[in-house]
Every structure is written in structure tokens, then in C-alpha cells.
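Quick one, C-alpha cells below. Sequence please?
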């Protein structure tokens, strides 16, 4: 949630400069920013407030939106995340055989 007492408000058009466009050197289109404010991207909506007739956000809200879109780092202890289906089936057979032996 945007805290208007602590965060400086900027228009959605001004917020476009915080995002890369579809081509190198290009800024994000303002219509894309409005779409992200209305319907979101991958289930995440960028935080906005209505200030009179202008819809505004802040740099911190842009940062939170980008972080929400960025995939988390996988836990290196979760080895099954990197295993193929055949490897997981083989592991399951091995575990079953070990349980049968009482190990």
C-alpha cells in the first residue's frame, strides 16, 4: 500500500521510466502501465492511488511490483526441483527398494 506521507507520488506516465521497454533504449508504453494498474501482470497489480483525476504510483511501488515479478531464487537444498521426471521415478524406485530392505 502506498503511504502518501512517506512516498513521493508520480504519474503512471512518469513511472514508465522505471521499466524497460520491449526494445533496448525504449521506455515502457503508458498504456501498458495503465493495464498493469488495472488488471495486473501474472496476478500482480501495481499499487496506485487516485489523486484528483490523476492516477499515481511511486518509485517504491514500482520496486515492489518488479520484485513480485522476479522469480525467487531456488533453494539449493531442494534437489528435486532440478530433477527430471525420469530421475524422480528412478529415485522413487530406489527409495522403495531401500525401504523393502529395511534401510
Amino acid at each position: 500500500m502506498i503511504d502518501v506521507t512517506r512516498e513521493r507520488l508520480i504519474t503512471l506516465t512518469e513511472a514508465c521510466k522505471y521499466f524497460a521497454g520491449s526494445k533496448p533504449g525504449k521506455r515502457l508504453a503508458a498504456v501498458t502501465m495503465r493495464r498493469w494498474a488495472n488488471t495486473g501482470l501474472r496476478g500482480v497489480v501495481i499499487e496506485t492511488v487516485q489523486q484528483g483525476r490523476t492516477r499515481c504510483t511511486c518509485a517504491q511501488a514500482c520496486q515492489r511490483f518488479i520484485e513480485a515479478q522476479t522469480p525467487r531464487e531456488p533453494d539449493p537444498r531442494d534437489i528435486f526441483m532440478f530433477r527430471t521426471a525420469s530421475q524422480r521415478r528412478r529415485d522413487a524406485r530406489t527409495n522403495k527398494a531401500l525401504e523393502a530392505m529395511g534401510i
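Strands lie at 9-11, 49-51, 54-58. The first helix runs from residue 12 to 15.
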